[in-house]
Design brief:
The protein is mostly helical. It contains 1 helix and no strands. The longest helix has 46 residues.
C-alpha cells in the first residue's frame, strides 16, 4: 500500500514539474514575441520620420 502511494506521489510531482516547465517556456516565448513586435513597431514608426504631435 505504501509503495503505491509513493508512486502516485512521485508521479504527481513529476507531472506538475513538467507542466510548470511547459507553462514557463510558453510564457517566455510569448514575452519574447511581444518584445519583438514592440521593436518592429518602433522601427517602423521611427522610419516614417518625425511627427508634429502638437498640431493635432
Amino acid at each position: 500500500m505504501k509503495t503505491n502511494t509513493l508512486q502516485i506521489t512521485l508521479t504527481a510531482i513529476v507531472a506538475s514539474s513538467l507542466a510548470l516547465f511547459a507553462v514557463t517556456t510558453i510564457a517566455v516565448s510569448i514575452s519574447y514575441l511581444a518584445v519583438g513586435i514592440l521593436i518592429a513597431v518602433a522601427a517602423v514608426d521611427y522610419r516614417q520620420g518625425p511627427k508634429n504631435y502638437a498640431a493635432r
